[in-house]
Task: inverse folding
C-alpha cells in the first residue's frame, strides 16, 4: 500500500475545513479505503467532536511525535468504519510542539499501512499550516462564496504553489443557490474564474450539516442530505472517478433551474 | 440592453457583481504585491525613461496588469508620436 496524503486547508477560519476532513474521511472509508484522519490544529482540536470520537482519546499527535506512545496507540478506531482512524491533536500544547519534518516522518510511516491520510489544517498561514502542508501529495483548498474567504484562499493557493506542493484542487462550501440566483452571492463559476484552480467539490449550504455535527455523525452518512452527497462526490473524484457536475452552473435560466430541480444539488 | 432596462428600473449592478469586481482587483494586488500607488509611480517613471528616446503620447499611455489564470502580466500601451505630429 502506498497511501496518499491529502491536506485540507483554507487560510480563513470557519469555512469548513474540519467538517470537510471528517466527511471526506468517512466517505473514503465507506468506499472501502483504509483511512487515517489527522487533526493538526494543536490547542484547538475539533476533528474528534465532529467525528463523534471525543470520548476515546488517550494519546494524541504530540504524544506520537515525542515518543510518549506508539503510533498505533494514538490511532482511534472509528465506531462505524473499522478501517477509519483518527489521530487527534493535543489540546494543551501549541503549534510549535511539532515541526513540518515530524509530519513528513509520521505520514511516511503511515503510507505503508493505509490508502489515504487526510490532514485537517488549522486556520492561518503560520506553523500549523506549514505542519499540515509539509507531507501533502494533494492539497484541497476550501472556501466560501464570500470576499474574505476567497481572498484568503488565493493567498493559500499562492503559498502552496511557492512550496511546490500540490496538485491543488478547490472546494467551494456553503453555496446558497437562492442567493446566487438573486445576485447576492458570487457564483461557483466566478470563484473558480478568480482563483483559477481546478474544482473538486461544490457543497451547498445545508442545515443537515449542523444537525449531524450535533450528533457527532458526519453528514455524509445521511444519504438524503445534498451536502452529504457533495462530500461523497469529492471522495470519488479524489480517486479519479468522473462524477458529473450537476449543479455547477448557477446562472439563471429555465433549463438550468429544471436541471437543478431534478438533480437536487451536486 | 440589460443595462438599459436596469437603468430604467433604477437597478444597480448586483452585490455579487460588486464582490467579484472588488475581489478581482484585490487579488491582482495581493498576488503582485503592487499597490495602486506603486503602479502609478511605475507609469510615471516608464514615461520618463521612454520619453528620453522617443516622443510618446503621455495622455494615451496606459499601464495595467492583466490576469490569465494565476499568471499576471504587466501590459503597457504606449502610443508613439510620429515626428510630423509633434507639437
Result:
Amino acid at each position: 500500500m502506498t497511501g496518499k496524503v491529502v491536506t485540507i486547508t483554507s487560510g480563513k477560519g470557519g469555512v469548513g475545513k474540519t467538517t470537510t476532513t471528517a466527511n471526506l474521511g468517512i466517505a473514503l472509508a465507506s468506499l472501502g479505503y483504509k483511512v487515517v484522519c489527522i487533526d493538526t490544529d494543536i490547542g484547538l482540536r475539533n476533528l474528534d467532536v465532529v467525528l463523534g470520537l471525543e470520548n476515546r482519546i488517550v494519546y494524541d499527535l504530540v504524544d506520537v511525535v515525542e515518543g510518549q506512545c506508539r503510533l498505533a496507540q494514538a490511532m482511534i478506531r472509528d465506531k462505524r468504519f473499522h478501517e477509519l482512524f483518527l489521530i487527534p491533536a493535543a489540546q494543551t500544547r501549541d503549534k510549535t510542539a511539532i515541526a513540518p519534518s515530524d509530519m513528513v516522518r509520521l505520514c511516511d510511516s503511515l503510507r505503508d499501512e493505509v490508502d489515504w491520510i487526510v490532514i485537517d489544517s488549522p486556520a492561518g498561514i503560520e506553523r500549523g499550516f506549514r505542519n499540515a502542508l509539509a507531507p501533502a501529495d494533494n492539497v484541497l483548498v476550501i472556501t466560501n462564496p464570500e470576499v474574505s474567504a476567497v481572498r484568503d484562499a488565493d493567498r493559500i493557493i499562492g503559498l502552496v504553489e511557492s512550496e511546490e506542493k500540490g496538485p491543488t484542487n478547490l472546494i467551494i462550501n456553503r453555496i446558497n443557490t437562492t442567493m446566487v440566483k438573486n445576485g447576492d452571492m458570487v457564483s461557483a463559476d466566478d470563484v473558480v474564474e478568480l482563483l483559477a484552480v481546478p474544482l473538486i467539490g461544490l457543497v451547498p449550504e445545508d442545515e443537515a450539516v449542523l444537525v449531524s455535527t450535533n450528533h457527532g455523525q458526519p453528514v455524509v452518512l445521511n444519504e438524503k442530505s445534498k451536502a452529504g452527497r457533495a462530500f461523497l462526490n469529492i471522495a470519488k473524484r479524489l480517486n479519479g472517478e468522473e462524477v458529473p457536475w450537476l449543479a455547477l452552473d448557477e446562472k439563471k435560466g429555465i433549463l438550468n433551474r429544471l436541471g437543478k430541480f431534478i438533480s437536487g444539488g451536486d | 440592453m440589460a443595462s438599459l432596462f436596469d437603468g430604467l428600473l433604477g437597478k444597480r449592478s448586483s452585490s455579487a457583481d460588486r464582490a467579484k469586481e472588488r475581489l478581482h482587483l484585490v487579488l491582482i494586488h495581493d498576488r503582485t504585491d503592487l499597490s495602486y500607488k506603486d503602479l502609478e509611480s511605475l507609469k510615471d517613471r516608464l514615461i520618463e525613461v521612454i520619453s528620453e528616446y522617443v516622443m510618446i503620447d503621455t495622455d494615451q499611455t496606459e499601464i495595467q496588469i492583466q490576469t490569465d489564470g494565476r499568471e499576471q502580466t504587466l501590459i503597457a500601451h504606449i502610443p508613439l508620436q510620429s515626428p510630423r505630429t509633434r507639437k
Observations:
- Strands of chain B lie at 62-68, 71-77.
